[in-house]
Amino acid sequence: MSTITSLTAETCSVQIENGELISFLSDGKEYVHQKGNPGWRKSDDEMFPVIGPTEKNNFIVHTKRGDGVQDQHGLLRELNYEQVQVSNKKSIYKKTYQAESLIKNSKFPDKSSQEFLHWPFDFEFYKSFTLSENELQIRFTIFSDQGMPFMLGYHPAFLLSGDEHEIIQSGSNSINLQQVYEVGSNAFPVLDINTIRLKHNDKKDVVLETKGFDNFMLWTEVPNMICIEPISQYTSYTDQIFSEKNMQISSGKEVFTCTIKLADE
């Protein structure tokens, strides 16, 4: 069942559907890609405990507790959020996974050979939204067994004008949509940086500031939408074997934040 939560602050409002950010309005203008429009069937998502395609690794991730089976971007997206707290300006959601539980893979059989996914570690994954004037903080808190290997990515999609005039600014570098198109499904890497800006001509710029991620990747195939994705690491251009040797190792509690700001300048 779909449950929509609304948060409000001054001239801004946010809508969240079962843990998915589906709207960010400011002064009557929408900033989030709308489901049903060309480009992507969602408006935000998470990538955990892996980022990127796993088919090249036979869908296997090697850990000291044994192998896990993961499809592209991990099994977290196959779990449902439970809303655990809500107020006028804040909403918190949780997903819980018990080690070795078999999770039905929605990509099977049309897009994957793996009918079930599993992971050899317990975890609780919290996602909180806190709204203030022209600013939305999204906080991810992961409680897990110590020593669990993981990657984390956040996958929000932003609404564009459709005329391809927008650019993405990373420090002194400017990236246009054509450059993102050319990279295709690998996504365009923007590495070793924690702030990025989507420049609009007809409304406020969107600035993403992150803590814990330290990298971004950009993806779109259409002129009306772009995904600006904070990621803990970039995997698409490597032939690496997915294992804990090239993943972060959890201390038992990890916190990541992505703050989406609307800025005039």
**CA-based gyration radius:** 18 Å
Strand order across the biggest sheet?
A: 8-9-12-13-25-21-20-17-18
How would you characterize the largest beta sheet?
9 strands, antiparallel
Poorly predicted runs of 5 or more residues: none
CATH architecture: Distorted Sandwich
Instruction: Give the helix proportion (percent range).
Output: under 10%
Distance between the termini: 40 Å
By secondary-structure content and strand pairing, the structural class works out as mainly beta
Which whole number gives the mean pLDDT? 94
Q: Number of helical runs?
A: 1
| Number of DSSP strand runs | 25
DSSP strand content: over 45%
Mind telling me the CATH class? Mainly Beta
What can be said about this structure in brief?
3% of the residues lie in helices and 47% in strands. The chain is mainly β and 265 residues long. It has a nine-stranded antiparallel sheet. A four-stranded antiparallel sheet has the order 1-2-3-4, with no helix packed on it.
Question: How would you describe this protein?
Answer:
- The N and C termini lie far apart (40 Å).
- The strands form 7 sheets. This protein has a 9-stranded antiparallel sheet. It has a 4-stranded antiparallel sheet with strand order 1-2-3-4, with no helix packed on it.
- The chain is 3% helix and 47% strand.
- It is mainly beta.
- It has one domain: Beta-galactosidase, Chain A, domain 5 (Distorted Sandwich).
- The protein contains 1 helix and 25 strands.
- The longest helix is centred in the C-terminal third of the chain and has 7 residues, at 177-183.
